[in-house]
Specification:
Elements lengths: L28 H4 L4 H43 L7 H7 L1
């Protein structure tokens, strides 16, 4: 995440330094408070993106493991001469 912006921490639990930003809008939320609402929404989106990347990466590992296991079991059945319906044939017979 640090490659996109130097203000973002590596760890989502760390505080994020909000630089002094002057917005082009006359009624900017940055002028009324110590933090910018737009910047805070960006931070939340980046943390959500980081979390979703971690989840999808873990899911992909699990899917790959299960697919390899299915291929292994189908190979055992085939090597012992046991007929089985594969995942596509089984749906047709239900």
């Amino acid at each position: 995440m640090n490659t996109a912006n130097d203000h973002l921490p590596m760890n989502p639990d760390e505080c994020i330094h909000v630089p002094h930003i002057r917005c082009a809008h006359a009624e900017c939320p940055c002028d009324r408070a110590r933090f910018c609402d737009i910047w805070m929404e960006y931070q939340i989106a980046m943390v959500s993106l980081h979390d979703s990347e971690e989840l999808s990466h873990g899911n992909w590992h699990e899917i790959t493991y299960l697919r390899n296991y299915i291929d292994y079991l189908e190979g055992l059945l085939h090597s012992h001469g046991i007929h089985y319906y594969d995942e596509y044939e089984a749906q047709e017979h239900c």
